[in-house]
Design goal:
Strand order of the largest sheet: 3-2-4-1-5
Number of helices: 7
Shape: elongated
Distance between the termini: 42 Å
CATH superfamily of the largest domain: Tetrapyrrole methylase, C-terminal domain
Radius of gyration: 20 Å
CATH architecture of the largest domain: 2-Layer Sandwich
Mean pLDDT: 92
CATH topology of the largest domain: Methyltransferase, Cobalt-precorrin-4 Transmethylase, Domain 2
Order of helices and strands: EHEEHEHEHEHEHEEHE
Number of strands: 10
CATH class of the largest domain: Alpha Beta
């Protein structure tokens, strides 16, 4: 028996990895994050598969299901949104499986920041503009380490992708404007890659108001940085005819 922590990707079923699609197609038991994943993904499950929405379940209840599956020698697909290693709360589940001696595997998935960049049609690491991408969130019920405050991270002026923070878009933009400048490009992508995807573009000066006007209050990513503005002033050296390459 094995538990598979599977990244469901950002929403579009075609953005599942081949391995994730295979595991879903073979699953006999699937515990899924019902409030976050695209329900179309469940259509890939066999009709006979046991399906359980973890939205209202506690950690202890989820672990009880793992125990039950282990007794029945049934593999479990634990379907998480996006990329499981990012804000997926899989660490505590893996710790419990370690204590129980139950084997597991993590299957990566495409994250929302990648789907959002695709929707915006930008390169997050634009040449001579930004070569660093920071994935973070604002403090909420889960506090942030002092060394990862927004002021500390924003000082680098890297491309910044903020998860789980869209309800604070206005105040975050005001804080970030002190580091990036009020004219710095910013964008909000709601339900990246879903059929109802919404893209809001602006600057740190107006992105908060535009987000509120669009009625976006959850399941959206706030992205900030000069790399969000095209065309870029500088081109990559990768395809420069006068540049020698060790890798291309």
């Amino acid at each position: 028996m094995r538990v598979y922590f599977v990244g469901a990707g950002p929403g579009d079923p075609e953005l599942l990895t081949v391995k994730a699609a295979r595991l879903l197609g073979e699953a006999r038991w699937c515990i899924y994050a019902g409030s976050l994943i695209n329900p179309q993904l469940l259509d890939l499950l066999p009709a006979t598969a046991r399906r359980e929405d973890s939205a209202a379940m506690s950690l202890e209840q989820i672990v009880d299901r793992f125990r039950e599956a282990h007794r029945q020698d049934l593999d479990v697909v634990r379907l998480h949104t996006g990329e499981p290693s990012l804000y997926g709360a899989i660490g505590e589940q893996m710790d419990a499986l370690d204590r129980l001696g139950i084997g597991y595997e993590v299957v990566p998935g495409i994250s929302a920041f990648q789907a959002a960049a695709a929707a915006l049609r930008v390169e997050l690491t634009a040449p001579e503009v930004a070569q660093t991408v920071i994935l973070t969130r604002a403090a909420g019920r889960t506090p942030m380490p002092a060394t990862e405050s927004l002021d500390v991270l924003a000082a680098a002026q890297a491309t910044l992708c903020l998860y789980l923070s869209i309800d604070k878009a206005k105040s975050l933009a005001e804080t970030l404007a002190m580091h990036y400048g009020a004219d710095c490009p910013a964008a909000v992508v709601y339900h990246a890659s879903w059929p109802d995807e919404i893209v809001v573009r602006g600057t740190l000066r107006d992105i908060g108001a535009k987000t509120a006007s669009a009625g976006i209050a959850r399941t959206a990513l706030l992205m900030v940085g000069r790399a969000l503005a095209r065309p870029y002033a500088h081109q990559s050296k990768l395809y420069d005819q006068n540049f020698s390459h060790a890798y291309r």
